Amino acid sequence: MADDHSIVVEGLKYLLSKHDNIEIIATASNGLSVVDISEKSNPDIIIMDLKMPALDGIAAAERILHRNPSIRIIALSANITSVTFHRGLKAGISAFVDKESVFGEIVTAINEVSNGNVYHCLRVR
Predict the structure, then answer these.
(1) Model pTM score
(2) Are the C-beta atoms of 18 and 46 separated by less than 8 Å?
(3) Environment class of 26 (CB within 10 Å of its CB; exposed 0-12, middle 13-18, buried 19+)
(4) Which pLDDT does position 108 carry in this prediction?
(5) Phi/psi at 84 (nearest 5 deg)?
(6) Which of 38, 42, 67, 122 is spaced 20 to 30 A from 60 at the CA atom?
(7) Can you tell me the distance from the alpha carbon of 27 to that of 10, in angstroms, rounded to the nearest whole number?
């Protein structure tokens, strides 16, 4: 999981820890760190913000998926514009969830991408 706001990371970690089928293996606060962590830990899914320091989420997704296309990426952002959405799709991002969505949407996105599907919350469809 990667987001430059620690309250978002800690809140999601707490809420996701209540789901037996979800394990948080690492967190990052910038795009370069999430790329590095993904190479070392080989996660199934990465949840990351699109707007982060050092390297934005779309550029990080491109690097991660270039090295390991089996990783599924969920973009979690407060500002998913049409341009951002299309850039993210082109980069290979599997799901888009707006930060204003209810918590259940992130769980739905996790379940959908773990089953090989794509997911876009209602706010970005």
Answers:
(1) 0.92
(2) no
(3) middle
(4) 94
(5) -60, -45
(6) 122
(7) 9
30, 75 in Cβ contact below 8 A?
Answer: no
* pLDDT tens profile 28-84: 999 999 999 999 999 999 999 999 999 999 999 999 999 999 999 999 988 888 888
The mean per-residue pLDDT over the stretch 94-117 comes to 93
φ and ψ at residue 45, rounded to 5 degrees: -135, 140
| Sign of the CA dihedral running 11, 32, 99, 91 | negative
**Quick one: how far is CA 28 from the chain centroid?**
11
Is residue 50 helix, strand or coil? coil
**Per the structure block, which two tokens stand in for 61?**
């997704």
Q: Kindly state the tokens that stand for 34.
A: 């999430």
Place of tokens 């990371």: 9
